[in-house]
Structures are given as structure tokens and as C-alpha cells.
Amino acid sequence: MHHHGYAWVGEKKTFDNEALRRPPHADPPPPALPGDAASQRLVERYREVVAEFTATDLPPIQTAHWLMKPRGVVKGTWEEPKGAGEWLGLQLAEAAPRFASQADREATRLALLVEAAVERLTWGGDVSWGHYLNGTLFRSVAVVTCSPNRSRPELSCPHR
User: Is the pTM of the predicted complex or chain greater than 0.85?
Assistant: First the structure.
């Protein structure tokens, strides 16, 4: 078992585009009917999701779906949960001064988050955190367990 880290910062409105955060459905929509604007929009939207989901670093809705993203978006790989926890702690420390919520910046709370994350990773769980930053930005950080992933064992590991 090992763990991969992922991080993303971007506009909240981009993060809110849930269609691009879900993998494409296994069954594509039927071909667009001539003159039917709704069916044409559906086909175009499906094509956009197919092209974007596995090509971008936009965080997926389901944490395990990070494994479907390009190998290049992996920020780190660790054999032990403690190493992944240290990386998570660094991610929090780096971003905490910009958290929109004062309560989210509290040092004890952040330390407890990291401690709980290491415990979860130890039994093969995944960790996913999101924080609003000052302005209109959102930050997502995740660590996904591989070999296999507990919630999605059919997903292949990006680095093995």
C-alpha cells in the first residue's frame, strides 16, 4: 500500500462546475437530433467532460477518482502514512494564512486534522480537504491510497 498526494487551487466558480468533476458516464448520450438544441447541448457537454475530466487537475467529486487523472498531477508519493501526513501538514501550514475562516487557521485544529489523516491513511482510507481562501479562491488537497484503493479497487495506480 502507498499514497499519492494531490493539490489544486483555483476559482470557486470553476470548482463548482460539478459536471467536469465527475468521470464521463459509461454510456454516451444518443446522437443529437437535427434541429434539437437540447440534444446537441447534451452531446457537446458529454464531449467536453470526456476531454476534460482525465486531462485536468480539477478535483474530482469522489476522492478515489484522482487516480483517473494524469500522472503529472501527482504532487508526491509515500510508502508510509506518516510521510503523507507530513506533506498534508505542510500544505495546511502554507495555505492557512489565506483561509477565509479564522477558525480554520487555528493551529491545534490543523494538527488534529493531520493526526486524523494519518490514522485514516494507516487503514487504507483516503483524505480530502477543501478550504475557501481569501477572495474567490478554493484550495483542495487530497491523499489517495493505492494498491488497491479501498473504495474503488478497480482503478489502477498512476505510479506502479
Answer: yes
How high is the pLDDT of residue 49?
84
- The string of DSSP letters for the chain reads -EEEEEEEEEEHHHHT-GGGGSPPPSSPPPPPPTT-HHHHHHHHHHHHHHHHHTTS-PPPSSGGGGGGS-GGG--EEESSHHHHHHHHHHHHHHHGGGBS-TGGG-HHHHHHHHHHHHHHHHTT--EEEEEEBSTTEEEEEEEEEESS-SS-TTSPPTT-
* Interval 116-155: pLDDT, tens: 999 999 999 999 999 999 999 999 999 999 989 999 999 9
CA distances for 55 relative to 60, 68, 72, 81, 149, angstroms: 12, 9, 10, 27, 21
